[in-house]
Amino acid sequence: MIARAFAPGHVTGFFVIKDRHRDIRKKGSLGAGFCLSKGAITIVNLRKSTQQKIEILINGKKSGAEVSRYVAKKILGEKKYHAIIKSTLQLPVSQGFGMSGAGALSTGIAVNRALKSNLPFNKIVEIAHESEIKNKTGLGDVVAEGAGGVEMRIKEGLPPFGEIKRIKWNHDIVLCVLGRGIKTGAVLNNQGYRKKINRYGVMCMKEMMNKPTIENFFNLSYDFASKTGLANKKIIKAIEESKKYGMASQAMLGNSVFAVGNTKKLVKTLKNFGKVYVCRIGGKARVL
User: Fold this and answer.
1) Cβ atoms of 254 and 181 closer than 8 Å
2) What is the per-residue pLDDT for 269?
3) Contact assessment for residue 44 and residue 71, using Cβ atoms and an 8 Å cutoff
4) Are strands 28-48 and 163-167 parallel, antiparallel or unpaired?
5) Residue 6 sits in a domain of what CATH number?
6) Cα separation, 266 vs 258, whole angstroms
7) CB burial class (10 A; 0-12, 13-18, 19+) of residue 180?
8) pTM to 2 decimals?
9) What domain range includes position 127?
10) 288 residues of the chain, pLDDT tens digit each
11) Claim to verify: residue 211 and residue 137 sit in the same structural domain
12) How many Å apart are CA 149 and CA 15, to the nearest integer?
């Protein structure tokens, strides 16, 4: 039994950590961001076996992939299958592009389809969200990737606890990776960063709610990146150079920049800082 699924990447411009709830379904983040047309494509092959075995390959290489593995195990339950899971990540991990969430969500959708277990889409999103929270690889990416488009997460957690407000907009998105990735857990566990993130994140959310425009989103994202200290000098320089041809900020939580405007000039400018990717706003996760 074979099935394929896609889940979009996701970029967050600013956020507020909301991970103190006892119920994991209520944990997550407030914030604003958008899904990407590039993400994770996962192919699942299930074969009946005498015992359960899960093999995961990420971009052709065997991987522990604990976030995706948790999702596959949860959906398979006690069923005895040899599951071969092949995920192709179209963007790098640990760069604020929501790849761990996209890998987990696309895995869940594909396993569910191959198994013909008919779990509701929202239940698969819940399992992938739970895995991200437990593995400390993200807070709000999966929720957003299950919705697609440009969003404001105005209440943390999964529906019906969480709430998303959509913003209609589409454009070429230029992404640039400037250096080594950032481990989400390392930032979320740093009390100094947590205080700054929540302080400025709350301010940005209030401003965004008052004026929910893309221009305001980019301005607030840059304020957040600089005031929290998450943006290093190279990131600041890349953003400032990009602003000559449009709008830009840092992808949370990554050593990376996202920009919109004159796509050709942005690509040329950002190639001086690192590897560049071009995509558009992406839709929700789905079966292929």
Assistant:
1) yes
2) 98
3) no
4) unpaired
5) 3.30.230.10
6) 10
7) exposed
8) 0.97
9) 2-165
10) 999 999 999 999 999 999 999 999 999 999 999 999 999 999 999 999 999 999 999 999 999 999 999 999 999 999 999 999 999 999 999 999 999 999 999 999 999 999 999 999 999 999 999 999 999 999 999 999 999 999 999 999 999 999 999 999 999 999 999 999 998 989 989 999 999 999 999 999 999 999 999 999 999 999 999 999 999 999 999 999 999 999 999 999 999 999 999 999 999 999 999 999 999 999 999 999
11) no
12) 17
Spatial separation of the C-alpha atoms in residues 9 and 92, rounded to whole Å: 10
Count of residues in the chain: 288
Show which of 165, 191, 213 is a domain's final residue: 165
Q: How far apart are CA 227 and CA 34, in angstroms?
A: 22
Residues whose CB is less than 8 angstroms from the CB of residue 57 and which lie 6 or more positions away in sequence, other chains included: 63, 84, 85, 86, 87
**Cβ within 8 Å of residue 134, ≥6 positions away:** 24, 70
Same domain, 178 and 275: yes
pLDDT of 121: 98
- Whether the Cβ atoms of residue 253 and residue 121 lie closer than 8 Å to each other: no
As a whole number of Å, the end-to-end CA separation of the chain is 14
User: Do residues 100 and 124 both lie within one domain?
Assistant: yes
Nearest to 156 by CA among 35, 30, 34, 33: 30
Whether 287 maps to a domain, the answer reads: no
**Could you give the CA distance from residue 126 to residue 276 in angstroms, rounded to a whole number?**
32
Residue 158 token pair? 């999964």
